[in-house]
Amino acid sequence: MTVETQQDKELILASYQKLLASCKRSNTPETKAMIDKAFHFAWDAHRGVRRKSGEPYIIHPIEVAEIAAKEIGLGTKSIVSALLHDVVEDTDYTVEDIAHHFGDKVAAIVDGLTKISGAFNQQTSMQAENFRKMLLTLSDDIRVIILKIADRLHNMRTLSSMPLRKQMKIAGETLFLFAPLAHRLGLYKIKSELEDLSLMYEHPEDYKNIAEKIKNKEAEQELVLEQIIQPIKERLTDNNIVCTIINRPRSIFSIWNKIENHKIKLQDIYDLPAIRVIFKPQEGVPEKNQCWNIYSLITDIYKPKPERIRDWMSTPKANGYEALHMTAMGPLGKWVEIQICSNRMNEIAERGFIAHSRYNTDSESELDKWLKDVREILENPESDALAFLDEFRLNLFSQEIQVFTPKGLIKTLPKHASALDFAYEIHTDIGNQCIGAKVNHKLVPLNYILHSGDQVEILTSEKQKPKEEWLEYVVTAKAKSKIKAEFKDNRKRLIRAGNKKLEEYLQSIGLVLNSKATKKLMEHYQFTNKDTLFLNIGSSQLKLDEIERIVKKKSRNKFIKYWKLQLFGSDDKKIDSQVTESKPEIDKKKPFLLEETMSEEKYKIATCCKPIPGDDVVGYVDMANNVTIHKRKCPNALKLMSSQGDRILEANWTSHRLMSFLAIIELNGIDKIGIVNDITSIISKDHHVNMRSIHFESHDGVFEGLIHLYVHNTEDLNNLMKKLIKIKGLDNVRRIENIEEYS
């Protein structure tokens, strides 16, 4: 606790006045009084407490409330809840106190925003449990999720004051769950900012390089956009269309993502410039017709790229987004993406769920259907929080397809969804009994991948039951949870049947089913619990005629067992002592130094990404204090940071000049005589690099090559790549990051 200075009070009151100016929807004396009461309540509760940055703690809830009011457009109860969201967690006040002062609804929202406290099983990730509790509130009030996103946005904006280990954990879970959640709720601006901020902490060098390149091209880009926008503005004004045209630049994260996924250079992203035409609708004319009219006027000026037209008006995205997208060839040979939307569509695009719910009060939207699906999944969540988190995240798909039922109804599914996903989307029973499908009147298997525009008819049989391999066929959380639920129900039925079958059999031979009998059977078959024993009997894996002999078999004399153990020792005892002997505890607050002279027992290199010295890396500490080193950009590392962030530690390389590490580089260019010799000559002359294998292919005058190398560190590798790119005819040299696919 610290003393609150006059300067602190001035800062707090200035922040509060800024919040009040943002509360456009809370303009009655009653709502203003409620917000004021919540502010003073929270201020008193957090008085004297400071954040890591040094500012008074109350500034954080005020800022979260301002994001909720100004950037999302939430109402009074949400603003009050945002001001109070940390009171229960960080002070002596309880949820009951909040209910007494501010009502049950606010108390329920604050409770949903309060992190789980208390002890968990060692195997459980508290981080995943917190996520699960937060997600379960979807069943009650979606404002909890939206406020949690606002809370995370302010935490990301002020993340610089946290230690590096915490930065990695928070940035990782933001990218893994909160940004996709924001996208799914249509909070586009917030989703983009969360992604950019995560990238800034996850890959600072990449972020800095892209930001600098964008800034260097800013003046040139503005000139190009002005040349593109001016003729459009004139043409639309001449046709009495009132509109605003704004620049919609790509976020730094989306550029980085495209460079990483498509392995292209920044200058090769042809649709980098983007503009949005926002028009004021004319009364009595459908907005869709007006969008196509504007499209027609624009294509009189610029030629469109036919395959890059996206009609999100006829079939809106699952988060409610509507617009007409096109890519056209602008002046000076520059491609530009043009988005056409009304004022209403633009508000939904910017503010997502809140604006969407305001405009769509009658019909059930795709977002409403998604929420219904999520609530269905949450009714019976997995007992394992990590598995549950994975299942839920599957439902946060960003790329969607629209497919048709035989009667012509549209169903929205994630990209790469199968016929079996579609079956479960229709109904659980149809999914459970699915034996195949007809796609566009052609018979296909269950795992057939659907595409937008497909018409799908599901074929069923009452004799069909879900199978284990079905989990590999589906990508939606709904389908996975229903298949697992069926397995769980079937397992319970088999356990009950096995218990009854064993009891009846033992009675028939004059024996009783008791703990002594089950213990003998479990020891003989080496089962760890009774359920596994009953399951194997219920599924006819164990023959009943063997059981009589096992149950009637006499136990060895306890004295003999003890004498043998004491006099001759026991291998089991040695094994147990080896298992229980754990490594010394690792201090996660200190950077873990990756020294070249360390033994392999100290740490191991992850096989999924195989980092080499010089790569940005993180360490993951398992239950036995083993450390595994991943690249920061490795998908598995991202998943670990988001679900088990408390086990992540900062890791730094020391100088490495003795050991060699595997790296793979890919080359392509114009095929010419002697180019392979030029490449191998440069590599063989480099004393720090050895080749393990080399593979080249040539077709139609273009060649592609893969070379497996052993290098000491990234410096050696980068120097080699700089030498190679100078070879005449070579167009591109890059390092393969996902090494698992090529090893």
Automatic annotation (TrEMBL):
Domain ACT: from-to ranges: 664-738
Pathway(s) it belongs to: Purine metabolism
Example of a GO cellular component annotation carried by this entry: plasma membrane
Gene Ontology molecular function: kinase activity
GO biological process: guanosine tetraphosphate metabolic process
PROSITE patterns: ACT, HD, TGS
Keyword hit for Transport: no
Kinase keyword on record: yes
Domain TGS intervals: 399-460
Domain called HD: residue spans: 57-156
InterPro entries attached to this UniProt entry: ACT-like_dom_sf, ACT_dom, Beta-grasp_dom_sf, HD/PDEase_dom, HD_domain, NT_sf, RelA/Spo_fam, RelA/SpoT_AH_RIS
UniProt xrefs under CDD domains: ACT_RelA-SpoT (cd04876), HDc (cd00077), NT_Rel-Spo_like (cd05399), TGS_RSH (cd01668)
Family: Belongs to the relA/spoT family.
Known function: In eubacteria ppGpp (guanosine 3'-diphosphate 5'-diphosphate) is a mediator of the stringent response that coordinates a variety of cellular activities in response to changes in nutritional abundance.
Protein name: GTP pyrophosphokinase
